[in-house]
Amino acid sequence: MNKRKTLYNIQALRFIAAAMVVLAHAELGQYGIGNIKILASLGGFGVIIFFIISGFIIPYVAYGGYQSEGEFKISAGIFFMRRAIRIIPVYALITALCVLSAFIVKHYISSPTPPIAYWWPETKISLRWYLESITFTHWHRDAILSIGWTLQLEFLFYTSFAFFIALKLSRLEYIEILFLTISIISNILTYQNNSLILDIFPFMKTLARPEMVVFAMGMFMYRLYLLGAMLKKTIALTILIFFIPAFLACEYFNITTNMGGEWHRPLIWGFFAFYGVWAALSLEGKIKPAKFIVFLGDASYSIYLTHGLITAWVSYIFVAFRLIDHSNVFLYIGVYFIISCALGSTIHMYIEKPIANFLKRFV
Q: For tag attachment on the chain, is the N or C end more exposed, with fewer CB atoms within 10 Å?
């Protein structure tokens, strides 16, 4: 491996993870269906898959895809700026549209449905909250775009890795150990919401989240990749087919539900996700996904963000125009999913990529 290459199966898995989150957030109340536990687990599992992929991709980028020690192939400043360019512009745009949604609901929707009343309250018409959201400094409340909590964790991981590059840590093992140490120390210092620590270092509460450990699992995956410690084709294919159904079965039948307490997600969900990503990597060069799926993987970030904007609006349109009288829940989910993918892909092609390509010229 003498140069970084596109990992097509990882791109496809990114789309699958995004699709899981999109489906989990489908508003089904208009059909008399309340919160479904298994859907919530599906969405959370998709996020864990994203985190493992991020933990893998970041050293893959920083080390050039063929080493895990020695000089980094990028400086700390350029690494950080390119990560910021990658995620902030389109996130800022979608978040602005969320504020606009709250404004529209307040002034122009006389009878808001429960989903848009919940997703777009007038309290979100706030410049301060908007700035906190897009800079990932909303330490004491959710982001305006509710799924922004995941991006806050991502951005802290990117910031930490940039710091490690600046320290010139020469081996990925040192980075893994230091990252885990920081996470554990943050857990200890913020135990029972220590107000003194949190007032001075509010970001420690986020660093202390158990999900942060999942990024280290992704970094470990990168070292497995370099070592060539991949699964045999038949084993990898079997895992790739069954790891999501197996996870859902364990959650649905309460086989693993109560394991791990607060660490349930990194320990149990992370276990299933790790094997899924490992299987996808093991099949690189052996099985190549369809180009359309790879494209949707490229667009997965915009799809992920966009669905958080439109899920309540699709539900509202179905109610306001009485479309629920002419459709069942499965048709609704299909329409909602297609709209999310189509709009997200459009934003990816005409907003996300052009902005990123333009800004990269300056870093």
A: N
| Residue whose tokens read 């909250």 | 129
**Token pair in block for residue 272:** 């299933």
- Give the model's pLDDT for residue 204: 92
CA distances to 34, 94, 134 from 200, in Å: 40, 30, 21
Contact in structure between 8 and 284 (CB atoms under 8 Å): yes
pTM: 0.94
Cα gap 288→9, rounded to integer Å: 7
**How many other C-beta atoms can be found within 10 angstroms of the C-beta atom of residue 273?**
29
**Per residue in 87-136, pLDDT tens?**
999 999 999 999 999 999 999 998 899 999 999 999 999 999 999 999 99
What the block records as the tokens of 85 is 């360019």
- Among the residues of the chain, which ranges form H helices? 8-24, 37-62, 76-108, 114-119, 127-134, 148-166, 172-189, 195-200, 204-207, 213-227, 233-252, 264, 270-282, 291-298, 300-320, 329-347, 353-360
CB 282 within 8 A of CB 230: yes
Cα–Cα distance list, 165 to 82, 184, 213, 217, 219 (Å): 14, 21, 19, 19, 14
Residue 211 contacts by C-beta under 8 Å, 6 or more apart in sequence? 47, 48, 51, 153, 265, 266
